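Lesson 9: reading folded outputs for more than one chain in a single document. The general rule is that every protein is listed as its sequence immediately followed by its structure tokens, and records are never interleaved. Here is the first one.
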Amino acid sequence: MSEFGRLELIRESLVAVVNEMRANVIHSSYSSIIYEGHDFSCALLTADGRLVAQGNSDNPIHIFAVPYSANEVLKKFKTDINDGDIFLHNDPYTGGTHLNDILMLYPVFLEGKLAMFTATRCHWGDVGGMTVGSLSGRVKEIYQEGMRIEPTRICKKGIMNDAFIDLLINNMRIQHERRGDFNTMLGTSRKAAEHIERLFNRFGGTFFLKSIEELISLSEKVTRERLSNIPAGTYFAENYLDSNGHDPEPLLGRLKLTIYGDELIADFSGSSTQTNGPTNVGPAMALNAVASVVKSFLDPHTPVNHGVFNPIKIINPPGSFLNATIPAPCGGMVECRAIMIALMVSALGQALPDELVGDLKGGANHVYVSGPQITYEQGKADIFLLYEYPAGGTGATRKTDGNHAVRAYPEGDFNAVQSIEIAEMQCPVRIEQYSLRESSCGDGEFRGGCGMRRDIRILSDVASLSVLADHAIIPPFGVAGGYSGESNRFVVIRKGKTIQPSPIPGKVGNFELRKDDIVRIESSGGGGYGDPLLRNPDRVFDDLLLGYISSERALQIYGLVLHADNEKINFDATNKQREDLRLLRLNLPVKLQNDDDFDGTRRRIELSKSIADRLGVSEGDLIELSKSTSAAALRAWVYVGNSDDGLSLGPTGFSALGVNPGDRVEIRALSATSV
């Protein structure tokens, strides 16, 4: 066999080890979020903490942060790492994701030397804290989110620190699941170490480790080649999270993306400061988000390893909500990562217009329903915990519609939603509706995917609801003139009346539920691509027949007119309706001013009263500016002044929209307004 053939064989063998780790976790874990939801990942690392291999279905949210954690372990324990040691970690400030994601690092020694690490990161259903499930939209400090584990050695030279494990698990809920998942991770790590030893012996130690270095170098070479094909320059993007969960002020994310030669610099300076709510994230997530986009958009087929990271430089000053420090809670890690993904997609889309894609549903959409078990069995938990993580629509591209209610490229092999059968078997609930959410898609020449609707009836006498989600106020953006998807919505139906469970949409903590209440989850749709009036009428008609859009939306957004029998398109009337709709649009020229106008974190756009009235908005309402060639719609809040009929924007606004002075942009009111 040639050296190249042996190199490829080693690569496939390493991936096979990780895939078997995944199979072991699925088959032996205790928590449904792991064995049904697949909220876990596995990886292999070099002795100095670089990523070697991940499985075909592993989640970059988990895996791309593991090298940061491994480096923290190496920094803390230095040369005091022994055969038989095991480490645990979940601390966001030292490379973790959020507290529910527990990482086990298992050193593998070969011929008496540290050769590799195995890594298993699993989402534990509860890690303590003020709410069942640990994630809540209403926390104010990380201590309310559960047990925080800095890099900790739990086993030394084969002797387990049982007292520490007992202390850890005894401070968590549903302890038999936590202990079962811990043992699953332990068994998986040990079996992976055995496989690595066999590979080491099969190929020879020197060649085996040399081959790993060559694989990393090859991946880096491909990434640099792809980056070098992007037009050099600096690209700007901005986007918002809804709030910190306690006050209505949105959080501003900023990105200055610089590409030069075969390297990339992602600078998140200027983003909002860290908050006392859950919408913060630690330092590992910036590289995680940037690398996920680079890999997905530029090189989706070659092996994933540390070579992807090497051409990327991150600037992300501590103290922002995108690089938080203690005691900022970090439960909304996925939500923060999602905004960094969106910023990267917007900025990269300016450099590579063919790669434009509409925004996604937001983050994880964490929904927890909990309460006392109706039937309590000895040795089992006396509480139930239903963890919902509803998927939404994906964004449209210049060639394709988005997909409905599925996971997207940054989320790995997560399932779309909790299994109905598992939910009803384990919890006193009944799932009464599970369907696509009509007209939730972002409209466009190519439309985004629809979100989903899920109705959960409570069968116990009492229960509680906690939610941690974003895009419940500010919806997913469209691109190239496409429209926004509908916002996430989480409400309670009680005796036929709709109740908002929190003053801040999407941020709920321990809302009291009663028997026969219905928790209604409606996830957002993906952003659209291009002008909806350019969509093929036949495709609009298909969407109408399939229930993706309403008849009103088909007429008012897409201009679709049917004959009296509602069975065929009236093409002449459709063309006339589209001409009329174009005339109703508000397009204004933009002019450059010295500075961008912000009120706190909110970008302000001054409109004259006549323009505001025509648009149907008032002071403080949320609008968006869109251009057919721009990467993403630019969001702003209305300031009613004495402006003429033009729009004044500062330099970053111009850059984010991709416009020149005098260009005309469309102004649209968004259904979401200030809270």
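And here is the second record, again sequence then tokens.
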Amino acid sequence: MIHKETIGAFLDGIYTEKSCFIAKFFDLKFFIDPNETDLFIYPNIPSDVKHAIRISWGIDLDEEILYVRDSSFWNDRNQGLVITDCGVICIPDNDDMNDRIHILWENVEHVEYKDELLYFFGYGDRDNNCPIHISHFLKGTSDSSKQGAGDIFQRIFTRMAQTQIPKDQDDIYEKAVEQYNQLMNEGKEDEALQLAINYREKEQNVAFTPEIAWLYHKKGQDEKAFTVIDEDFNALAEDNLTWKGKLYYTKYSIYDDNGDYTNARKNCLYVKKNIPSDVNWEYGDVNILDDATKDFLRFENEYTQHFLEQPYNERKLIVPVQSYTDLSQKKLAVVDINNLPAINFPMGHPVANQLYVGHPYIPSKYIPFENYELELIEDKIREFSQIMQYLGATEINIESVNSSSNNKDVNTDQKLSGGADYKFISGSGNGERYITNKLLEDISQHINLHQKFSPKKTPMLPNNLVWYQNEPSWQRLYNQRMQGALLEHEERIETKKSQVVENSELKKISAEVKWLFVQANGNWEQSMEEKFEAHENAILSIHVKFAPLDSLGKTSVQDTIKGTIKNTMNSLTSYASSVGNIVHKILPVDMTDIEKEYLDELKACLEEDGEISSRERRLLNRLRERLGITEERAEELEVFLLNPQLTEEEQEYLDEYKICKEEGEISSREKRLLDKLRVKLRISEDRARELESSLDLN
């Protein structure tokens, strides 16, 4: 980098600095002889001379050569003295090129001339200096030449050195702030951003980082904003709580501006717990601690009220605590035990600092982590058995087939972020285990089942199903059974397919839970460690025998339709309340216009109360005959009408509509937003009304 100020100081000194000689003042050229052979002064230095000097003296291309005194015998350009904008280089003897003096201007405080020596003083006491004889700078040997040149050189060199002395950081910052504010007032945000970025990089200072982050945010580049904040946050010393707090104050303000209260809450807690009480924000003279305290209460309320609206993976694991110490966890959702979201726990729960797992299909239900697998698998098997009973099962037999484990147990030492050491201790990989697999034992004790039935009723689906909508094999089994040919079936259910916490996650989860426990001054025992051991996969075999379909009670087509409607709607309603997955009806692709006309009338009959009266059935039969539709085809079409399907886009729209309906009458603003969402999802107005009607009918 060319130092223009240094070059300017040199040129100004050459022509303005004078020394007294015989009662007159003369400039430097009076005492030296720039003869264009062995003494050159910028800018009159030929390019070939510069080239030779750079080669012989190892001077970089980005240095400007200002002064050359060649003292080599044949003007070989390998001995003498060179002044550049970066410093002074002196080679007294070209027989020893390593014996050289190299002084950088940035290391020089001032220069003094005395007794034919130019002393280059560095920072510190007067002993810290480097002397160079004046003869290396000029050809003249008279005392008057030496004195005159030395007198001028000392002032020129001092001024050159001062151009590279770092300016006071406060002055630099104040100047940058002034320029930044001026650019912002002029509406030049891009230029202001670049100025702030340059200051950050050049000065290695975080003073402008909040401004950089916020301007990135205004440009829609939040990822860049958070990257800058996190980089500077991590680079700061641990005890620099003022600036760490300011950076996270900016970070949570950006999240707040985006309406992301979950992440705003996490970063706000850090500020609330760590920022010194006397730190004010430069803009508006706001006390950061007071502001963060108020903001955290707001974020906490928003987080609690809308907790169940979060994606399942973000609320899957929760730990209630008596007081917040840290919210930086990636696997856990930490909640206040005294201000819990609208969730349900088993009797005797919740317990502070204990881990709970959310039911995958019942949002409000949370289960203690240590036995969640057993409870989920029991729940799943109970529902399957209930479905089988409703479909006319005569016998159900459940047994544990086997278990296997591909998990290699590892002894791992890790360190918590706060400095506490801990160890995961599990079984060995050679078959010898330090702990027993409690899950397998509990399954063998609780789930072995053998039941016999004497079915009489027409097969149907039971109400309030939870797992069914997410089990395609069960749905296929239902269709097979309703066709009448299925008399026996074997279903295998594996615990790993109901496992919502992967074994690969367990170590990270254990570390986060332990850290919270340690912060709460708890004692982490081996029994707690064992809760996070990887469980083996249990395989359960369920053998079902059915009564022949023709031996069960028969009903009219009308009653079958009514019963199917009722059970299907109840099932869908139950499922919708748990996961918001209402589905719509899709007709066969080969349907004729006549068949569509028939189904339009059927849907019209069902829309009022979900039932078909005897009078409506008589009229529908008359219409069917006139349209030339057989009784069998009519029954097929009517049953197919109830077959649930839904596209992802339609599901998303219906989910949002359902939430709006649950909160009361849909406002005009909500209608406008729903319509915008419909357009984005490429759903027609007619289709949207059909989806809404299906939910309203329920």
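What the second record shows: The chain has 24 helices and 24 strands.
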